[in-house]
Amino acid sequence: MEILNINQLTKHYGKLTAVNKLNVSIEKGSIYGILGPNGSGKTTTLGMILNVIRPSAGTFTWFANTNQNVNRQKIGAIIETPIFYPYLSGQKNLEIFCRIKRIDNTDIERVLKIVDLYDRRKDTFKTYSLGMKQRLAIAGALLGEPEVLILDEPTNGLDPQGIAEIRNLIIAIAKQGLTIILASHLLDEVQKVCSHVLILKEGKMLISGKVDNILLEPNIFEIKVDEREKLHKLINNTPEITLVQEHNNLFIVNYKNQSNGQELNRFLFENGLVANHLQKQEKSLESYFLDIIEHA
After folding, report:
1. I want to staple 47 with a disulfide (CB 3.0 to 4.6 A). Which of 4, 7, 52, 99 is the partner?
2. Residues 206 and 225 reside in one and the same domain
3. Percent composition of the chain: helix, strand, coil (DSSP 3-state, to 5)
């Protein structure tokens, strides 16, 4: 089911084009990461789909419904740093969120338990760590049981422990069926968390799709066998296989016939070789991102 459809979405600031004819479709249940260097249009894109920023051109549709007032009630978001009262407790701050959202306070217990702050609900906000403050912000966005959660740089400024806590929280929330859209510059975190990724540069979409599909190297496989010389001979006599790299008993090869390892495994077996290890090689999101940004 399509949650969000973006069609030719564009934003100009005078002569500057912050977002340029963006087309994206986001499906229910996905964790969609938006990546790009500073000034690439990530936050502007989020602002437009939340009706905070008026587009210069193009359209977007949530839940196949043009009634934006109804749609906004289904979306929880953290774009700028949320304003909390430092001398009020986490519980009292969320009560203020409830009044703003016009929902009952009874939902506070649920969201505090999701973000693991229920036991600290009576403590003042100023005593919270940075990670706890960010988790309270996520709790505020979850009030009212939205179908979509939008996060702009959710781990910004956190230490490694705080980053891990937010990462695990995002994964847990997604397992409950929410669709999550997040902008981030932490490539490793996006690779660990996101099912889909969109890469922007100067407002233009460079690529969009499933993370696993994007990072798979075409036809590059790792092979480990006991009979090293036999594999050498087979590679030399097989035009479809090219040796890319060799280290001890691990061979990295380009197998031009198939992008599926089953065919390569069958070919090895038919030639008297049993692979102890056979795996399609993947790039890291960081190396892929840097490569595509550099050559765009």
Report:
1. 52
2. no
3. 35, 30, 30
